[in-house]
Design a protein that fits this description.
The chain has 14 helices and no strands. By secondary structure, it is mostly helical. Helix 1 crosses helix 6, helix 3 runs antiparallel to helix 4 and helix 11 packs across helix 14.
Length: about 400
C-alpha cells in the first residue's frame, strides 16, 4: 500500500513538473512572439505612424538590443533576489510595454514601448530558463530544457500567420492588444502555478566586481568570441530579411496574411534544422557540422543571387528556406562548441553569448538597412552569412 502511495505521489509530481515546464516554455516563447507577430504588419505600421521603411527596422532593432542588454542584467538579479520576483516584474513590464505600443501615436513612443517590452521579455526568458533547471538533478538539465524549447518553438511557426491574418481586419494595434492579453494570462498562471525555485541555502549572489571579472575571463577566449560573433552575423542576416522582406512582399502584391504564411514556412525550416541536430550528432558530429555549414553557405550564395537578379517570390523563398535550415543545423552546434571551454563559468558564458548574438546582430542590421536600398540590404544578408562561416573556420591560437 505504501509502495502504491509513493508511486502515485511520484507520478503526480512528475505530472506537475511537466505542466510547470509547459507554462515556462509558453512564457519563454513570449519574447519571440513579440517579434514574429508584427513582422507581416511592418509596412502598415510604418504607413500609419508616418515612418519610412528604414525607420520601421528600428521597431525590430530596439527590441533586439534591449533583449540583449536585459539578459546581462536579469541573470544576476535572479540569483540575488530569486527567480519568481524577476519573472513577475518582467511580465508586468512586458504587459505595460505592449499597451504602450498599442497606443503609440508616433515612432518615438512606439520605440519606447518596444524597449519596455524587450526588458520585460529578457527578464521572463532568463527566469524561465533557470526555473526550468533549478530542480533538475546534476547532469539532468537537458530533459527540462528540451521540453521548454519544444514549447517555445511553436511561437515562430504560428505567430506570423496569426499576425498576418489579424492585421487585415483588425489593424496593427490589435496585435499588441492580443500580445498584452496573452501576457496577462501568463501573469495569472505564473502567480498561481510557479513557485520560487531558487535554492537559497548555501548560495550567494556574485558581486558586481566578480561578475565583470567573469565576463572578462570569458571574452579572453578567442574561440568563444569568434563563434559568438559568427552567430551574431548569421542572426543579423535574418534580421535584415525580417526588416526588408515585408516591404518587398508588399511591392509584389502579397497581403499581410500571405506574407505571414511565407514567414511561417521559413520558421519551420529553422525548427526542422534544430530538431535534426540531435539525430545528425548521433550519426557523426563533425559531419553534421560540415553539412550544416555547406547548406548555410549555399543559402547565403542563393540570397546574394536573388538580390542581384531580382528573381520572383519563389526564388527568394527557396533561398531563405535553405538558409534557415542551415542556420537551424549550425546554431546549436556553434553555441555548444563555444561554451565547451567555459564549464567553470557556464551560466555567464551562455548569457553573454545570447547578448552578443542579439545585440551585435541588431546593430549591424540597423546600419546596413539605413545605409542601403532594400535589394542591397537583402543581398547583405547572404554576405553576412558567408563572413560568419569564414570567421567560424579561422584557426584559433587564443584559448584560455
Amino acid at each position: 500500500m505504501t509502495g502504491k502511495t509513493a508511486g502515485s505521489d511520484a507520478a503526480a509530481a512528475s505530472h506537475d513538473t511537466r505542466w510547470r515546464l509547459i507554462i515556462l516554455g509558453g512564457i519563454a516563447a513570449l519574447g519571440s512572439l513579440a517579434v514574429q507577430i508584427i513582422i507581416p504588419a511592418l509596412p502598415m505600421i510604418a504607413h500609419s505612424i508616418g515612418a519610412t521603411s528604414r525607420d520601421a527596422q528600428l521597431i525590430i532593432a530596439v527590441y533586439a538590443v534591449g533583449l540583449a542588454l536585459g539578459q546581462l542584467i536579469c541573470g544576476p538579479l535572479a540569483d540575488r533576489h530569486g527567480r519568481r520576483p524577476v519573472m513577475m516584474i518582467g511580465l508586468v513590464t512586458f504587459l505595460v510595454g505592449s499597451l504602450c505600443c498599442a497606443a503609440a501615436p508616433n515612432l518615438l513612443l512606439l520605440l519606447c514601448g518596444r524597449a519596455m517590452q524587450s526588458l520585460g521579455a529578457s527578464a521572463t526568458l532568463s527566469a524561465a530558463r533557470v526555473m526550468a533547471t533549478d530542480r533538475a538533478p546534476i547532469g539532468g538539465a537537458a530533459g527540462p530544457l528540451a521540453i521548454l524549447t519544444s514549447v517555445a518553438l511553436i511561437s515562430p511557426a504560428l505567430a506570423p500567420v496569426i499576425g498576418g491574418a489579424m492585421v487585415e481586419f483588425a489593424g496593427w494595434r490589435a496585435l499588441f492588444l492580443i500580445l498584452a492579453a496573452v501576457i496577462a494570462l501568463a501573469l495569472v498562471l505564473a502567480a498561481h502555478l510557479l513557485p520560487e525555485t531558487r535554492p537559497w541555502a548555501g548560495e550567494s549572489a556574485i558581486p558586481l566586481e566578480g561578475l565583470m571579472l567573469t565576463y572578462r575571463q570569458v571574452l579572453r577566449d578567442g574561440h568563444y568570441v569568434r563563434l559568438a560573433l559568427s552567430s551574431a552575423l548569421i542572426t543579423a542576416g535574418f534580421q535584415l530579411f525580417l526588416a526588408v522582406s515585408p516591404f518587398l512582399f508588399v511591392g509584389i502584391g502579397l497581403t499581410p496574411a500571405e506574407a505571414g504564411f511565407c514567414y511561417s514556412g521559413i520558421a519551420c525550416a529553422i525548427i526542422a534544422g534544430t530538431l535534426a541536430v540531435p539525430l545528425l550528432s548521433r550519426w557523426r558530429g563533425a559531419a553534421a557540422r560540415r553539412l550544416g555549414a555547406a547548406i548555410l553557405a549555399a543559402g547565403g550564395l542563393a540570397i546574394i543571387a536573388v538580390a542581384a537578379v531580382d528573381t520572383p517570390l519563389a526564388g527568394l523563398l527557396v533561398a531563405m528556406t535553405l538558409l534557415a535550415f542551415g542556420a537551424g543545423l549550425t546554431g546549436p552546434t556553434f553555441m555548444a562548441e563555444a561554451i565547451e571551454g567555459q564549464r567553470a563559468r557556464l551560466s555567464t558564458a551562455v548569457g553573454l553569448y545570447g547578448a552578443l548574438q542579439s545585440g551585435v546582430a541588431a546593430l549591424i542590421a540597423t546600419v546596413i538597412v539605413r545605409l542601403s536600398p532594400l535589394h542591397v540590404s537583402m543581398g547583405g544578408a547572404g554576405v553576412l552569412v558567408l563572413i560568419a562561416l569564414i570567421l567560424r573556420h579561422r584557426p584559433s591560437n587564443v584559448r584560455e
